[in-house]
Design brief:
This is DNA polymerase III, chi subunit. Pfam families: DNA_pol3_chi. GO terms for molecular function: DNA binding; DNA-directed DNA polymerase activity. By secondary structure, the chain is an alpha/beta fold. Helices cover 33% and strands 24% of the residues. It has one domain: DNA polymerase III subunit chi (Rossmann fold), CATH 3.40.50. The chain has helices spanning 14-30, 42-54, 114-129; strands spanning 3-8, 35-38, 63-65, 74-77, 87-91, 103-110, 135-138. It has a 7-stranded parallel sheet, with helices on both faces. The chain is globular. The two termini are 24 Å apart. The model has no long low-confidence stretch (mean pLDDT 94).
């Protein structure tokens, strides 16, 4: 069964979620997992694409937007189905992915913004209702 984790950041800084997504994508890729970063819209996809280019000066994170190369090691997209299965989904969208079962692991990144906390609490309950056992990880 897919492992679901909610990584909880200590602050409400929106940029912190993007940096955490980059760090998690790097770790996933280094451990041999295909990584899909699910954004809420194309603007967020483009922002994350730019951030990944400069995230680690000493190490390149091989990534592409889904529309450019859906089989890249790290793919940035929205609602598209993953080209590779059994990898890592980093969900930055406020909704659950319709493709959750195609991943071995899903990470939801939460910060202390009140609206996001509410959405993530609802998502936590939805995962439970669907038979998953989501875990909370304090960062």
């Amino acid at each position: 069964m897919t492992r679901i984790e909610f990584y909880v950041l200590p602050d409400s800084e929106p940029a912190g979620r993007a940096r955490a997504a980059c760090q998690l994508a790097s770790k996933g890729w280094q451990h041999g997992l295909s990584v899909f970063i699910r954004c809420q819209d194309n603007q967020q996809c483009n922002e994350l694409d730019e951030l990944l280019w400069s995230f680690r000066a000493e190490r390149f994170i091989p990534h592409e937007l889904y529309d450019d190369h859906p089989q890249a090691p790290v793919v940035i997209g929205t609602e598209q189905p993953p080209a590779a299965t059994q990898g890592l989904l980093i969900n930055l969208s406020p909704t659950l992915s319709p493709h959750t079962d195609r991943f071995s692991r899903v990470i939801e990144i939460v910060n202390q913004q009140p609206e996001l906390l509410t959405v993530c609490r609802d998502n936590f309950r939805l995962y439970r209702q669907r038979g998953y056992d989501p875990k909370r990880v304090e960062l």
